[in-house]
Amino acid sequence: MDLDIIERFVNSWLSAWNTHNVEAVLAHFAEDVTFSSPVAARVLGGDGTVRGKAALRAYWTEALTRVPDLRFELVGSYAGVDCLVIHYRNQVGGLVNEVLVFDGPLVVRGYGTYLTDDRSAPAGID
Fold first, then answer.
1. Spatial distance between the Cα atoms of 43 and 29, rounded to a whole number of angstroms
2. Residue 126, domain member (yes or no)
3. What is the DSSP string of 3-64?
4. What are the CA-CA distances from residue 62 to residues 56, 57, 69, 85, 109 (Å)?
5. Is the distance from CB of 99 to CB of 113 less than 8 angstroms?
6. How much is the average pLDDT of 18-27?
7. I want to staple 49 with a disulfide (CB 3.0 to 4.6 A). Which of 33, 36, 39, 56 is the partner?
8. HSE-up of residue 50 (Cα within 13 Å, Cβ side)
9. 36 in any annotated domain
């Protein structure tokens, strides 16, 4: 992955989240995206896997109503061949890795991952 493209992606992604602009975040994702997260399991129930852009929009919109102070601070980003890891600290001080797998310029799979020793509400959602 081109480092300039990665830097622009990460900056855009962070800005969109920090302004709570779900549509701007979704602009980075394919229509048939699959996203898995333990936070999705808390918010939606089930196995924590969200399928499709419309379902992802609904999940993130609901999650933002539960975390009105959401804020991410970049710790680092890590590039692979067709993937990117965004390491950040969230508004409750939790360290998170967002693992994003690309097909061309769009994310087709994503994984929200949290420290295994953080058994509380890792994203501030009880």
1. 20
2. no
3. HHHHHHHHHHHHHHHHTT-HHHHHTTEEEEEEEE-HHHHHHH-TTSEEESHHHHHHHHHHHH
4. 10, 9, 13, 24, 20
5. yes
6. 97
7. 36
8. 30
9. yes
Q: Are strands 106-114 and 95-103 parallel, antiparallel or unpaired?
A: antiparallel
Over residues 2-22, the pLDDT tens digits come to 888 899 999 999 999 999 999
Measured from the Cβ of residue 115, the count of other Cβ atoms closer than 10 Å reads 11
pTM recorded for the entire structure: 0.91
CATH code for position 79 = 3.10.450.50
Write the pLDDT tens digit of every residue in 67-93.
Answer: 999 999 999 999 999 999 999 999 989
pLDDT value at 119 more than 90: no
Q: Is 98 contained in some domain?
A: yes
